[in-house]
Structure formats: structure tokens, C-alpha cells
Amino acid sequence: MKQKLKSILRGTHLYKKFGRYVHDARNRFFDLKHGVSTANTVGLHELDIENRNVIFAIRYECSDPKLFHEIFDSLKIKHEDFAFVDFGSGKGRALLFASEYPFKKVVGVEFSPQLHRIAQDNIRKYKSASQKCKKVESICMDVINYDIQDEPAVLFLYNPFKEEILSPLLAKIENSIEVHPREILIVYVNPELEHIFEKSKMLIKIESGTWHSIYKNV
Ligand SMILES: C[S@@+](CC[C@H](N)C(=O)[O-])C[C@H]1O[C@@H](n2cnc3c(N)ncnc32)[C@H](O)[C@@H]1O
Question: Can you give the CATH number for the domain in which 109 is found?
């Protein structure tokens, strides 16, 4: 009965509106607490991206702290052995979250110079007594041109681009695994293009929730 009521409520306009307020409040609180600026959504038309792949990009929206930590707290890996790479890292919000875990290094790839500069600023300003990884950097480039390093890694995707970019990026990741076999995990938040992963012979889904899926190489 309680479950049924919950699922009816979830579909209502009021519930969604309330959920949005809670999400926004959480985002603003994170920025205030850590002295950074990551919360505001930025449309692609407001950005300075001189790259033809901009037509396949999704606008900047930051990761949610609660969801990120729910996913990463349950990840059973030895963080020290893994790099964290965020493809489409925007203002660096997910990089700051990831730096709370003892990853070997944390890297963000973002093709908007404007967002990249904000990310660099946020990395510098981030205040946290519990930060475990200090090797955090934002790189300004198209993910398609990023050289995937030969090391175990957790690759993070918060619904950053369309199929035209995700497909070749996945092919590049698979090729890199083939050449240098190692453990690769892909955390895909707001996974709108799961059908692309389903075509893969190398990646299997090991977890899925309402807002995310996790893939791993076999
Ligand atoms: C939904 S935001 C994700 C932000 C960040 N990952 C987070 O979790 O807070 C998507 C980001 O991907 C970037 N993006 C889209 N296509 C890209 C590409 N081809 N190369 C690099 N960045 C890209 C956009 O500019 C935008 O900042």
C-alpha cells in the first residue's frame, strides 16, 4: 500500500517540482560549503565551444552529491590502483566528488574553455578536510582526442553527449583494453544511450539503478 502510494506520488507534477527544489538546494549547499561554483546549469549556446562536435553535446548540468556518493561508496575497488576520468567534466563537480576517494589521480576532459577555466578555479578553491586525492586536473579537449591511459580506471559519464560521440569513444575504450588488458569500470549516470553498451562484446553491465548503470570489461 505504502509502496503503491509512493509510486503514484512519484508521477505527479508536484512531486517532481519538489524533487527539483531538493536537488537544487543540495547543489547550492555543496558549493557554499566547499567554496566553489559548480551548481548553475549552462546552455551550449552560452558557451564558447569552437568544435564541430558541439552539435552532439548535452548542456552543462552538475552531478548530484547524494547519487554520486551512493554509487561510489558501494564500488568495491582498491581506489589507489585506479584513475578516475570524467568525460565531459564541465565545471569539475564530479572531479571534486571523486577526490574524496583515494584514487591514484582524478582527471576531467571538457571541451568548453570557459567551463574548463571554471573547473580549474574550483579545483584550486575546493575546501575539504576529508579530500583523499590531491592529484586533480581538468584538461580542455574533445573527448574524442583524449589518449586513454594504460592503467586501471573508473570512467565516468554523466549523459554528456549523443551517440555520434559515445559510440566512437566506446570503440576507443575497447581498443585500449584490447591492447593493454586491465580492469575498466564505466559509471554511466542518466544512461539514455544504454543500447550502445548492449552492442559491446567486451563490456557487461554489473549494476543498474534508477539513475545509473555500471559496466565492466569481461
Ligand atoms: C551533463 S554535463 C556533465 C558535467 C560533469 N560531468 C558532472 O558530472 O558534473 C556534460 C558536459 O559534457 C561536455 N561535453 C559534451 N561533449 C563533449 C566532448 N565531445 N568533449 C568534451 N566535453 C564534452 C559539455 O560541455 C558539458 O559540460
Answer: 3.40.50.150
- Stated as kind and residue range, the H or E segment containing 122 is helix 113-125
Task: Name the H helices within 151-201.
Answer: 163-179, 194-198
Q: Residue 169 contacts by C-beta under 8 Å, 6 or more apart in sequence?
A: 87, 143, 144
CA 3 to centroid of ligand 1, rounded, Å: 35
Give the pocket of ligand 1 (CB within 6 Å).
53, 57-58, 60-63, 86, 88-90, 93-94, 109-112, 115, 142-143, 158-161, 165
What is the grid cell recorded at 96?
A: 571534486
User: Which set of grid coordinates corresponds to residue 186?
Assistant: 564505466
Query: Tens digit of pLDDT for each residue in 138-169?
Result: 999 999 999 999 999 999 999 999 999 999 99
Using CA atoms, how far apart are residues 47 and 197, in angstroms rounded to an integer? 29
Give the closest residue (by CA) to ligand 1 atom 2.
Answer: 60
Question: Could you tell me if 57 and 29 are in contact, meaning their C-beta atoms sit under 8 angstroms apart?
Answer: no
In a domain, 10, yes or no: no
Q: Are 132 and 101 in contact (CB under 8 A)?
A: yes
Give 68-109 pLDDT, tens digit per residue.
999 999 999 999 999 999 999 999 999 999 999 999 999 999
The protein residue with its alpha carbon nearest to ligand 1, atom 14, reads 88
Who's near 112: CB < 8 A, 6+ residues apart? 47, 48, 49, 60, 90, 140
Query: Residue 80 is part of which domain span?
Result: 44-217
